[in-house]
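# step 3/5: fold
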Amino acid sequence: MMSEGRAGAMAALGAFLCWGVFGIYFKAVGHVPAPEVLAHRILGGAVFALLFQAVWGRLGEITTALRDAKVRHGLMLSSLAIGVNWGFFIWAVANGRALEASLGYFIFPLVSVALARLVLKESLSPRQLAAVALAGLGVGWLVLGGGGVPWVALILAFSFGAYGLLRKTIVVGAMAGLFVEAALLTPLAALYLLWRGSDGVVPSGDSTTLALILVAGPLTAIPLALFTYGARRLKLSTLGLMMYINPTVQMLVAVFVFGEAFTRAHAIAFGAIWLGLAIYSWPVRRL
């Protein structure tokens, strides 16, 4: 029988691999306007999360979250952060910027460290400061190398960093939180789809596109469920190191599947960020 730790590692690996190849899905629906894909992802995510909670008998978690004003207000903010993150990732992949999107998720852990210092007033060790500085140098080199400001990467890194910061302070289960966040965004998503009317993908799309749109919800929720299962059974340090699987796979997909150019400036920028991540993640020897 598989041990708890091994099962958790397999679940976390499955989540990170799913997120890593997510770009292939969004590339397949790249002919659909990004806001429309986002709207269906929000609606599908809400429905799937609700069904998940119902099947596992956890609908009470949703009721509890909605009754708690602090949790409810926190999820309002986190829903905006994740909505921005989802929307820009979908747009980036559809517009040939998947490599820049992967850069954002490499930067994200170090953005989280910086936000923890600025917002939560957590102290940073010299090693953590060096890691954040190296990430900043990597982004700066990309700008100087002629790539311009990688604004998509920065928006993805900071929006997901803000989301992580908010969810750290909100006491709510992963799926219950996802449902409330998606439900809060649902009115905007529904209004957009109504505005699209007969031009939308549901009334006018081909069968393949419709099938892809219908699985947007499960594709959003299942990796989150796997991640939550793994997170509860693994050490935080182990989970943190495994998290880099996601942007690494995203980068490989962008270069070798989508054929995006990996320039010398990209190599230096990614190298600086990887070095920063290595410095940040290296175990501290206790005396």
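# step 4/5: annotate
The chain has 15 helices and no strands.
# step 5/5: archive (pending)
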